[in-house]
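INFO worker-7 received task bundle
INFO bundle size: 2
INFO processing item 0
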Amino acid sequence: MKKFIFVIFICILTLTACNNNPNTNEVTLPTHPNMEFVEIVHQAKEENEYTTTLYTVKNSTQEQVTEEYIKILENDSWNITFVNKPLLIEATKENKEIMIFLFNKDNDVTLAILSR
């Protein structure tokens, strides 16, 4: 009986010690409601490199997306450090830096987001 209780105790201890905590403190980038993922162009391999990801917002203009995205970032506590409307937004939050380049393509806006 003691062995059985010991085995159960070890199993419970193992399960609780190996518990994955999904609540990380990593800063994530908020998304525009109409933003669709296209591809990761470059994945950073070192700490000082940027990861470049492409997104598209359909049936919109650079000016509209720039204004909306600035509001989204500010509502998520990002510090807007530089804006060159409607081409570029730079922002920081805690240890995260982003640069968002906006391009018109037909009736869509492509966002190239560099983050580190």
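INFO item 0 finished
INFO processing item 1
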Amino acid sequence: MQAITCAVLIALIAASAASPTRLDSSVVAAAHAFAANQTGNSVIGGHTVDITKYPWTVSICHKSGGGCTFEAAGSIIGDRWILTSGGALGKDSTSYRVTVGSNNYDKNGDQSILAEEIYYGGFSYDEDIALIRLSGPIKFGSRAQAIRLPAIESDTDNTSAMFAGWGHTSDSWFASMSSTLNEAQMYIGDGGVCQSRYGSKWNGRSMLCVGGNGPTTCHWDVGGPLMKKRSDGYWYLYGLAGNNDYYATGCSYPTIFTRIDYFCSWIERITRADVSCQ
């Protein structure tokens, strides 16, 4: 079944626009819809954690037919701003809801706020990032806080960082999502392994090569934060789990994360300097 999944996703990608690095949004949506019906998507090597440890972590769901289906995790970076994966979301911004302050992705948290607008870095392998502007402000407290963003050219290669998400906790094809938030310490490589495996899809300027030899992530961790606590005592968001539908990989390989510092100027421009890198 895994071989069939990869073949279908690769075929979808091959059918995209002529540019070798750009994906048509309809292709992204089709690949995401197909992968949403699959399993084997996991936070491997992690364990449960309370939301108060990473209070910027939120779940994003898509409203449809009276329900709301989990689509991605995200991070609070301002009282009206959420940062997540662009490939995980569609273009209808008003159909998304963000749950704040919850250990469980499928239960109401302290706050539930509708999206007002979604801004995309682009629909391509190396632009897998989106900003959600909320319809109302987040009330900050012990279960809801903003994470800081690192300045450009932050040195992250060959270091470790923490990841949080709701993906599966094993690589079993029949696994289900973890209902409770999980954390795992992950290794950030120098990009050589990802360059070798992903070829032209790899862009070391806008991506991080994470995991693969130990704790790692897959599809249902998409949008989740990769973070480090710096000497000033604050946590900083260094990466977000990319949409692995782009790469058609399983849970045994290094995961491509979006590198946050590369997008600092874009984030500051979209938020009109409400959010800035430090």
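INFO item 1 finished
INFO post-check item 1: The CA atoms of residues 168 and 177 lie 4 Å apart.
INFO post-check item 1: The radius of gyration is 17 Å.
INFO worker-7 idle
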